[in-house]
Amino acid sequence: MFALRRRVVGAVCAVALATGVAVGSVGPAVADTGSAGSAGSSGSADLHLPVPTPAGMQALSAAMSQIGRPYQWGGTGPWSWDCSGLVQWAFSTAGVKVPRVSQQQQYAGRAIPFSALAPGDIIIFYRDASHVGIYAGFGQVFNAYGPNGAPIGFTPLNHWSYIKTIRRLG
């Protein structure tokens, strides 16, 4: 079992290196307690690959079903949305509980580096974490933002000048 785990981790690392994807830090080495008695490491590694989660994809799909609905500050649906209300509702359709406001959503899930950004990840914008959207791929973010009444939809990622954090949920 430990030999198989080493082969899988080695293959994932090889793919990550071949594609230029950032690989997180490797945990401390621990002795292999396999029946063969060989000494090795079976530490854990945080791999940050640009691979969407099923929950993220389901949330993105749910959010996109709301395209064209109006932005409304404080809106939690179903007829109008604010940014964090849309994210909270979309992830609830995938069975993932997310806090209500973007300032709390910045701590949900796991932090992901920009190099591993995948569709379904949430992106928190601005230093005060006052906006959130769901990455849709191809440099686009699906989000709800104002002024009140503006239709929700896609915005280019490069529209925002500051990304506070990227989070992977589910």
TrEMBL record:
It comes from the Bacteria. Pfam families: NLPC_P60. Residues 1-31 form the signal peptide. InterPro entries: NLP_P60_dom, Papain-like_cys_pep_sf, PG_Endopeptidase_C40. Gene3D superfamilies: endopeptidase domain like (from Nostoc punctiforme). Residues 53-170 form the NlpC/P60 domain. Keywords: Hydrolase, Protease, Signal, Thiol protease. Belongs to the peptidase C40 family. This is NlpC/P60 family protein.
